[in-house]
């Protein structure tokens, strides 16, 4: 890739944060494709360059490229003139269907409102503490996400987040969260389940529940904020 093309990518291929490296790197490269910064048939920058620009490991980058490959957006070619090439059809029927089905949803408003409610609920639970029954409910909801088969994961994930909202002590917050979560789930149902992302989410879920049970409100809010931002990065990457 020549110097002019590399400069064209600079506004998008920025370093990502370590906490959500996979999700944000995927969002960045999807943006490159959506914006046409690398045209159909052209080659993406070499793996080493992409990893350096995004400040991620080669392992994480390969996970990102596999997702793009699995969804027919890029292909890998071997040999002297090999590399990762953008396939025709990145804006084809499947992607157009995704855009059409979310056209009526204000994605940014939904994601921001979700973040406010989730971070607030996590902080309230940690600050005010949970009784034995509440702590038991939260632990059980977390365990269910760990044990869930892939096909049932999002349902159990929803239950965990709804449990946290209900335990915040604010019925108004819980009701509003239930409504916004329904919209978030509608969006999530239109993007693929990514095992790498689910593993990351599970680590965040565990850290979140530990912070809540230990009464560390600052940590609970911080973990929840990062968790929401990771999901937001994926949704923006696939849907906007």
TrEMBL record:
Gene3D superfamilies: GntR ligand-binding domain-like (1.20.120.530), Winged helix-like DNA-binding domain superfamily/Winged helix DNA-binding domain (1.10.10.10). GO terms for molecular function: DNA binding; DNA-binding transcription factor activity. PROSITE patterns: HTH_GNTR. Keywords: DNA-binding, Transcription, Transcription regulation. It holds the Pfam family FCD. Residues 19-89 form the HTH gntR-type domain. SMART domains: FCD, HTH_GNTR. The keyword Iron-sulfur does not apply. This is Transcriptional regulator. The lineage of its organism: Bacteria, Bacillati, Actinomycetota, Actinomycetes, Kitasatosporales.
